[in-house]
């Protein structure tokens, strides 16, 4: 069968050292070849037209991989998106408007652009998880949380110690442990200077945290021990653990509620009560564990190709 048609796949964000061009080289579905382009959010310019779709221009990349077109300017219309980088981060990292431009034209994507839009604000994700918890109770053990829309509403707390999270946070940023009322009052005084919401949850002195990863129909589970209460630090170790029926139930319920094909659910284990607590759900921008990167990238590739075939009936 001769191949003379093209479907254009755009991968946005994630680790810039991953060679997506190599991963999808010589890939085809039926008589369509799959051509990939990669960009970081800040290297992309787009315009969306109601009658002619989304036009994307990618600037030459400072992360250019040899023997790829990353060092040149490219302009094209994508047929499918794979979103591997969060479109919001620390101060100055906000590509919500670009996400809206992609949604404007309804470009099919993994994860869905609607789920990515919901993930712009962690309270929205938590509300979906809370609905699951209300239905399944202890079979979906979500950590209790309090939401404050502004500093002026922070007149009452639920006891100490607490973990406070300012706005939508990633990778440990915007997160504090509050030991007493004085710490809480200090946080209130800082929030009063900015337009941010705050969530708080009880601090649990965990013995390990866990992550359950789902890529399509493939699952992994990890447990991590760390000297840092956030779970990140110099003295941390993580190990592969079996995907128990309990872990699988957690991630299946969460991914279904938010329509996610690629996601990871994070939680902690309380050694005193021997209970798990689900902390948060992460979207398709999840990092991959280094020892499994090659295998997991192939799972992502298979998922993307399957979805393109399904959507375009190839």
From TrEMBL:
The UniProt record lists the Synapsin pre-ATP-grasp domain at 4-109
Localization of this protein: Synapse
SUPFAM superfamilies on file: Glutathione synthetase ATP-binding domain-like, PreATP-grasp domain
Domain (Synapsin ATP-binding) ranges = 111-310
Quote the Pfam families the UniProt record gives.
Answer: Synapsin, Synapsin_C
Biological classification of the source: Eukaryota, Amoebozoa, Evosea, Archamoebae, Mastigamoebida
Keywords from UniProt, A to Z, are: Phosphoprotein, Synapse
- What family does this chain come from, according to its entry? Belongs to the synapsin family.
State the organism of origin.
Answer: Entamoeba histolytica
The protein in question is named Synapsin putative
User: Where is it mostly found?
Assistant: other
* Domain of life the protein comes from: Eukaryota
Q: Name one GO molecular function term.
A: ATP binding
């Amino acid at each position: 069968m001769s191949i003379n048609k093209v479907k254009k796949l755009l991968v946005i964000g994630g680790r810039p050292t991953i060679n997506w061009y190599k991963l999808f080289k010589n890939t085809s579905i039926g008589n369509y070849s799959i051509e990939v382009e990669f960009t970081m959010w800040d290297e992309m310019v787009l315009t969306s037209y109601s009658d002619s779709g989304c036009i994307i221009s990618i600037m030459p990349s400072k992360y250019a991989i040899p023997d790829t077109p990353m060092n040149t300017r490219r302009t094209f219309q994508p047929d499918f998106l794979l979103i591997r980088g969060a479109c919001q981060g620390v101060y100055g990292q906000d590509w919500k408007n670009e996400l809206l431009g992609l949604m404007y034209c309804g470009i099919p994507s993994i994860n869905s652009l609607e789920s990515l839009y919901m993930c712009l604000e962690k309270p929205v994700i938590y509300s979906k998880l809370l609905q699951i918890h209300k239905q399944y109770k202890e079979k979906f053990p979500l950590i209790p949380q309090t939401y404050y829309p502004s500093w002026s509403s922070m007149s009452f707390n639920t006891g100490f110690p607490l973990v406070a999270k300012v706005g939508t946070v990633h990778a440990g940023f915007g997160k504090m442990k509050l030991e007493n009322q004085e710490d809480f009052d200090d946080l209130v005084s800082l929030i009063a200077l900015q337009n941010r919401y705050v969530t708080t949850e009880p601090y649990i002195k965990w013995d390990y945290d866990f992550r359950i990863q789902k890529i399509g129909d493939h699952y992994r589970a990890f447990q991590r021990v760390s000297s840092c209460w956030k779970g990140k630090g110099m003295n941390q170790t993580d190990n592969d653990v079996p995907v128990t029926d309990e872990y699988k139930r957690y991630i299946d319920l969460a991914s279904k509620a938010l329509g996610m094909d690629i996601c990871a659910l994070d939680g902690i284990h309380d050694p005193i009560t021997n209970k798990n607590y689900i902390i948060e759900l992460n979207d398709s921008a999840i990092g991959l564990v280094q020892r499994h990167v090659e295998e997991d990238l192939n799972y992502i590739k298979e998922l993307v190709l399957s979805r393109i075939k399904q959507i375009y009936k190839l």
